[in-house]
Specification:
alpha+beta; three-stranded antiparallel sheet; 7 helices; globular
Length: 110
């Protein structure tokens, strides 16, 4: 009773990556650093509070790096760390799977 089981690393990763907007943010940052508003436009549909929360969590986990630029006016950019860039393969695999198995059904929805 009361014993907690150790979570499998894949389970932990899936829990993180299934959070709404996380994969969209990572995919957008694969193209390089972006400012908050640019990232918000690229991701599309994510409210600013949620985007800020997800970015903070990804930064906390070492997936995203935040840089504050001391210029006038000051601005902040976000970019993927090595851990974040390593997710390129994951997103590529999802893209490959979707093109192979979902493309016909997606074209029928239009």
């Amino acid at each position: 009773m009361g014993e907690e089981r150790e979570r499998c690393p894949a389970e932990v990763a899936i829990d993180l990556l299934q959070e709404k907007w996380v994969l969209h943010i990572i995919r957008a940052l694969l193209d390089g650093p972006r400012r908050f508003n640019e990232l918000s436009r690229t991701v599309g549909g994510c409210n600013p509070a949620t985007l800020a929360q997800r970015l903070d969590r990804l930064e906390e986990l070492g997936i995203v790096k935040r840089t504050v630029h001391s210029v006038m006016p000051p601005h902040t950019t976000y970019e993927l760390t090595q851990a974040g860039l390593a997710l390129r393969e994951v997103i590529g695999a999802i893209d490959h799977w979707a093109r192979q198995y979902l493309s016909p059904s997606l074209s029928k929805e239009g």
